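In response to a reviewer's request, we include the raw inputs and outputs for one of the modeled complexes. The two entities were modeled together in a single run.
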Amino acid sequence: MNALAYYYCFVGILKRETYRFLQQRSRFLSSLVRPLLWLAVFAAGFRSALGIAIIPPYETYISYEVYIAPGLIGIILLFNGMQSSLSMVYDREMGSMRVLLTSPIARAYLLVCKLLATSLVSLFQVYAFIAIARLFEITPPLMGYVYLLPAALLPALMLSALGLFLSSIIRQLENFAGVMNFIVFPMFFLSSALYPLWKMRESNEITYQICAFNPFTHGIELIRFALYGQFNLLAFSVCSITTLVFLALAIIGYDPKHGLLKRKSGG
Amino acid sequence: MKNHRSFRIVRASALLSLLGLAIPSMAEQVYISNEKDNTLSVIDLDSLKLISTIAVGQRPRGITFNKDFSQLYICASDSDSVQVMDVKSQEIIANLPSGEDPEQFALHPNNKHLYISNEDNAVVTVVDTEKREVISQIDVGLEPEGMAVSPDGKWVVNTSETSNMLHWIDSGTHKLIDNTLVGQRPRHVEFSDDGKTLWASSEIGGTVSVIDVATRTINREYSFHIPGVYKDKIQPVGITLTHDNRLAFVALGPANHVAVIDIAQQKVIKYLLVGRRVWHLALNSDETRLISSNGISGDVSVIDVKSLAVLKSIKVGRFPWGVAVKP
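The model returned the following structure tokens for the whole complex.
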């Protein structure tokens, strides 16, 4: 198997994800409307809720809209990760996954390609959102937009890997309600997306500890720091390790010899 | 002679550059009086870092430089004196008689007469800074606070917080000539550079009045509305105007915002979020930076005037009050 075959394989999967995304205009719109609603409606009510402590990476007082923006980038990535998971389950039910899995290329590589393709599509939505967010006076330094690219890619991979892993253990589309209730919402609300961690600590130490442990928090903080030209080593490390763990679990999950697929199909 | 000297400086600079040695820049410095710490904080305006803290008298509030920036006058309210600090050595070299509880003051363009408001006993004290003696005391309204001298030196204006008035004093005779009634609790007054208008903030009234100096009547009144901030919290205090009379900046106290007014358009164009209880403001010499003292949060915010964006908030002492910039 030469390198060109691997390249074609990646391009094929990326193209499929892109076409799927472009054809589903409502998906693109909803992925933008969701964070914009948070920004325009939810954040507006909390405008003066913050502004009493300067926390890194900010060098001065910020409005709530500015604080919440990285968390809303996170929500785009999180929903996209879950959406990709949903599409994997759908592909499996419809049988189109069989076509992909009959490829002679290693299954782990196929999964990494799927991960990368989903993440790159997510990044497009992230940039669309952050461009519109300028209208809400969310104006990080210009270089912040450059640093955002790798900083958003890593959490995108992490959340797509989580989605991939979930898709390996979820049997039917109907089970996705459970994913929303038990994974997406807790992950979002128990993070630094909506409130800084010190605010969480003020109200409850246990909630604070859960938020600090949540890898989604670290994804958001990596994005937040990058937008203001800073690198958060802890956030980077947590995101990298979590991505590898979820990816490994997904690879095991999709392995026909050891994976959950085998068990589920009764084989 | 001057050309020869300039050439030598350029040659020396080039030599130092070749040797890889940096030439220390003469950055502007911001002086801030810390009301609760009895200190002044000094910030380098290039690096935006605190570079020194200087112990001064009790409860320092108003501060202002003399014309050549060699001396800084400090209202040490609880020491009942105006202190004179030598800027180079950063040492207090004299205590001027000031009357009781000096809070704010203004230096006459003659660089000699200092007009001081004495909050506790309803007078304005005039001090000769050369002879270091009181030359006059003028009765004004209750709780005098804000103080300004017109650019031509003709008018001295004082605000009295409880009487809600601006008192117009003739600087030649030191006599009270007229009063202008403004909104509740006037705290600060500022002349435009052309001397045609006087801006006065009313803390409880929540307004800023623009007064025509020729007629001493109110021309226009500004009020402020910040989304998400309760109206009662909007309490204007410090005001500063750009030399070209294009922009006016108003510190809105516990609203934690600085309002930016476009003077030609006669409207507020932006509210800038700064620290808690923003009190006084100062522009640097080329008016690229605006500095606000934020009392409760104990910091100062540095604002980029061109983009109207807050660059950084820097911790200083407790309850920063007055701000003055040394070029």
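As requested, we also summarize the result in words. The interface with chain A takes residues 227-229, 256, 273-276, 297, 301, 309-313 of chain B (CB under 8 Å). The domain at 2-326 of chain B is CATH 2.130.10.10 (Methylamine Dehydrogenase; Chain H).
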